[in-house]
Amino acid sequence: MDRLASLPESLADAELDGAAAVEVASDAWKKTLDAVAPAVVVLKVTQTRAFDTEAAGSSYATGFVVDKARGLILTNRHVVTPGPVVAEAIFLNREEVPVQPLYYDPVHDFGFMRFDPSRLQFMAAAEIPLAPLAASVGLDIRVVGNDSGEKISILSGTLARLDRDAPHYSRRGFNDFNTFYLQAASGTKGGSSGSPVVNIRGQAVGLNAGGKNKAASAYYLPLHRVVRAMRLLQACHRPDGTWSQPHIPRGDFQATFGFKGYDEVRRLGLRTETEAEVRAAKQQQEGDGGPLREVPGSTGMLVVESVVPGGPADGQLEPGDVLVKLNGQIVTEFLTMEDLLDSSVGGTVHVEVERGGQPLAADIRVQDLHTVTPKRLLDLGGGAVNELSYQQARNNRAAVGQTYVAEPGYLLGKAGVPKYAIITGLGGTPTPNLAAFIEALKGLRHGQRTPIEFYTFGERHRRKSSLLTVNWRWYGPPLVWTRNNAAGIWDCRVELPHSMVGSPLAAAAVAGPVAGLPAPTSGGKAAGGSASKRPPLHPNSTPGGGTRAGAGAAVGGAAGSTGGIPRQRSVQAIPQHEDVEKQQPGVTAQPDDARLLNSPVFDASEAAAGGVAAAAVAVTSEGDAANLWRSLLEEELRCGLALVDVEIPLVALADGVHSRSFSGCGVNVHQSDTLGLVLVDRNTVTIGPGDVMLSFGAFPAEVPARVRFLHPLHNFTIVSYDPRQLSEEARRLIRPLRLSPQPPLRRGDSVELVCLSKSLRILHRTSCVTNPAMNVFIHKAEVPRFRAVHEEVIKLDQDFGLAYSGVLCDRSGGVRALWGSYSEQISKEEQEWTAGLPAAAFAPWVERIIAEHAQQQSLLGASAPAQEPAAGGEAPAAAAGQAGSSVPPSSGSSDAGSDGNGSSGGGSNVSGSNGSSAADQEFEPVPLPPPQVVTLDAELEPLLLSKAAQFGLPTEWVSRLVRLDPERRQVLRVHSCVAGSHAQQVLKDADMVLAINGAPVSSYNDVERMIAEVAAAHAAGTAGAAGTAGREDGGQAERPGSPPYKRPRTEDGSAGGSRGSGGDGAEPAAANGGSEAGGSGSEAEEAAAGAGLPEVQLTIFRDGSVQQVAVRLGREDGLGTNRLVHWCGAQLQYPHRGVRELGFLPERHGVYISRWHHGSPAHRYGLYALHWVSEVNGQPTPGLDEFIEVVRRLPDGADARVRLVHYESSKSKVLTLKTDHRYWPTWELRLDSQTGEWTRHAISSATTT
């Protein structure tokens, strides 16, 4: 009883002793953490380029100081990263110090960064000693670091294992191997990588590397090899504070080992005597100190898991081999093996293994791991190429050193080369390594298309081939970056293509990251000439054109009309006979291509003699006649259709475009000797910058095209191509189609829907119009972009679905509508649909552009000097065309705009006297200024008259609008106004627009017609006034013979004077063109630009009464955005119309961020898209010119304070960033509106002061 009575007192005393012990331990840990925390830093690391196993990006991690005198910080390899990085360390007192990478291990997950201790001004540096031998099972630890974004986080745990297998993170990324790991249940997360794992004495016993979230397990790298590396690095520190190139011998024979227990190695065939020998040796080695289970390698042996092909161990070791000895020493764990290999670099080791119970031995060469670790990066067209590293070779069982695609970017991605691919050849030249690939690349010209061979690891036994289109325009020529560990940076060298060496234009393309290097241009001359002068893409193409079966586009009125621009039909007129014109429902797909080239039914001579018509009339079978009619129609349309492929580089994704690749069907509307025009929807050619490629249905040929007109409101674009790049046969077969805008289609009309598939085959069906004027209302996207407004489209009872676009035509082949694709974002999901845009919407613009081309050619012809006849008395073909001569149709005629400005001497014949082919010819781009578009800067929406009456619309106006359009019975009301426009000042949302200039309107077509009439009248008046002024200024006006691209340039870079027949002759309004081209967009400029715009009188219904208001129209440039500035990885431009349609512009709105790039300062500091930049370092930036003047003065690494305004919330905020001219220089893309050519220009580089 006494003992039982005294038991509670004993328990109480024990509890008091335990509490006291816990309190003592807690105090000890507090003192330890107080000493450790000042040495722990938060690392902000930005990898500027994709390289090896890592992608470009920005992240937070942890590191800790291990040598405060030299400024050494230990962290993980995946934090240091193998590629070019920019990083800062943030100490406990929130002091930021720049750090540079010094070393990372080729295999294990540790690396070192360095900083200048003298830069730490407001606190004393601390360091954490390394104690790898202090790790033991059951040890209490603390992990101190940046966990889940917290600046300082302390997690506790207990070491559970010392011999855990190295964690496997990814099949395609970095993985540690040939080492044990420590394991504990501390549950670390993102941001804690590189944290010290400390004991109660404040010593680091491990390096936090990874974890498994589901099991709350954390993995720590042992520090034995880290200590060795640190000692060697300390020896590289010079007394003056600089560093020599680190050299840390790391040996390996490219074999991966795994630790297996004795039970498993027995099953692999390990002999009993060998096991006994190994166990005895380990027992003797460890002695009696502690349980064997705590000693790594005491319960098993190392087994070969994989061997890298082509490595030193290839053919010597095989998976399943059990390692017994190295150089006669028994080896059962990784530390001993690495000690032996690291001390034998460049030599050999004697390896003894057992394979299936058979002892084997071999001498294997020990390779320096740093020789198989890539040190060079090829920056190619926005992508990254390096030699295949040991890491990736091991992951994919491939030989190291091959040409490896870390990131395809634009150039390789466009050619279909995927990420992680191996390039084996370029242009017929093998590329076994990066050096060979660079040399092959330097031999290519801008615009050249060459085969590229590659394979992927998923299909390693299949070699693939595609065409690489060489393009230095968007990214400049290739750059080679080389790691410089001593300086902590990557040195850059421009690899000039041989064709660009010595070119005076080589200084404009690359914003040179290194002083003294030539900076070639992609926008000027490349490949020995102008970038715009691409070589022909067909071996039999001929320049100049000469006399041929030319074709001008037909833009007529009613079907069969002969008015307008002269035209040539691609085939003979389709016979108009009742027995042939039977409606044929269903789909017709062309079975083969023979009919186009060789079929006797379509022989050109027979057709010219009327054989086709005669054959059609002579047919007695009704079915045969119908089939012949359909075949004739399909053949004619096929000659005028083309597949349009668009690729947009990342550096040119302007105006909120939602994709990088587009494809659709285009319609050839004009072709002369030097200019071809193709009409396509704006869901295919969405913006101006990008590479457009045309594949013709008439002939297997491809040519590049340029954007020449982007309608700001309607869903169509006009692109141009150079017919001189086509073979003579292709030019003969490709024919423009005739546009038939009148009479308008009505409900129930039968039309022919003809589309061109991606395999260039015709799809044809007869459909019925169900709605000839469906109002289009496209919702605003999450990211503002182009949307068709004020558009009425045609809907059919049957079509081909979303994947096909083409034309709607009548039985005579006249194009009644463009069957195009539309895209809109609904609930954050992209949805596409197709509809027909009536020809009346685009035919006038096609006429304007063709007329402008004819006018430019006549001016060139008038100003060209007289030419001597060529050898043999033959006059140059181009001279004849410039003089306006007409060639008889039998010998191949061309319209008034069919002549050209050839590559030399104003033009060239089909073949020169030297017999050179067109593949060696270069052609000057044809100047073709885009027409301007006068717009009513208010978006209208239809409202049923029954609803309008409920809002109080007077009965007389209801009756009047019903009489105007008895079918739709609607009124238009204001949905929104374009920000910064005069309409926004005058109109209000929900105003009902009843009439324009006294004429009632109730549909979008009514509004468009009235605006067009006002614009035409104003343009005529302006042109008359300009002509009078020219006669009165004493001859100082512009000379008629002056080519437009040689006229004086205005501030926005466009030619002065008239901009073509599509506008009133004034420059673009500041609401769009003025500032967009780089102007400041000030109120004075906007007022001056708006003064020359016409006004319209609107009759509106507002607040219960009918009112009259005067609204000044706006003007949009026909090419949209014409300038893109890249600063710190952010893409800046003038706000495009899609942004201004939202109805808000800040006071300083000329600099809008439309995109940012991974791994850039913009990514790192949050300079994201959809913001305006209103100030930089307190300096106002109302426009791009002012912005450039401010940032041009900022040196590399300078702090910049940027004031932003969000596009949607209009909230203002200020952020700071550091410039990085080495990896992210400032440069811009500019558009020459006359030629449609984009060029790259450098603004600042690392040498900027």
Automatic annotation (TrEMBL):
Keywords noted in UniProt: Nucleus
GO cellular component: nucleus
Family matches, as InterPro entries: PDZ (IPR001478), PDZ-like_dom (IPR025926), PDZ_6 (IPR041489), PDZ_sf (IPR036034), Peptidase_S1_PA (IPR009003), Peptidase_S1_PA_chymotrypsin (IPR043504)
Ranges where the PDZ domain occurs: 277-342
Keyword Nucleus: yes
Biased composition, class Gly residues, residue ranges: 543-563, 899-909, 1054-1065
GO function term, MF aspect, one: peptidase activity
Compartment(s): Nucleus
Stored Pfam families: PDZ_1 (PF12812), PDZ_6 (PF17820), Trypsin_2 (PF13365)
Composition skew (Low complexity), residue ranges: 520-533, 861-898, 910-919
Keyword set includes Nucleus: yes
Chain ranges passing through the membrane: none
Primary localization class, coarse: nucleus
PROSITE patterns noted in UniProt: PDZ
Region (Disordered): 520-566, 860-931, 1025-1090
GO biological process, alphabetically ordered: proteolysis
Its biological purpose: Nuclear serine protease which mediates apoptosis.
Protein name from the UniProt record: Pro-apoptotic serine protease NMA111
